[in-house]
Amino acid sequence: MFRFPAGSPPNRNDRQRGAAAVEFALIVPLLVSLVFGVIDFGMALGQNISLQGAAREGARQGVTQGDVLTSISQAKGLLDDAKLQAAFKVDSSAGAPGVMVVCLRYPQSSLSGFYSWALGGFFEAKAVMKMEGTVTATSGAKNGGSCTP
Question: Model-level pTM?
């Protein structure tokens, strides 16, 4: 018959618990990175969609004789108005009545700060619509925005 030497026999559960702790320590950084990535890039996608919608709404209002900058401010969603750069102009180089060009620019930002290295640029949106009639305002800008047709 086999007998264990003096002292307590090695417990298999103690070794398994240590292995689980090591596996957990290796997986946690990956999971945290994944969660912060979903948060940051989801927020960035939402900002980009809001920016495109605001540019489209500004161009639509511009071609129907509305106030372009006011409609952009109303359609911007959760974007910060102080950071939003907007510009619009009527391009009639291809003939009358021309097209309304609206350009928007908004800085990318990382909500958690974890992916600030990847989200350090600008989102840009441009909307172009054919004019429906005469124009009262042919160009304008807010917060230093610029626009090229």
Answer: 0.77
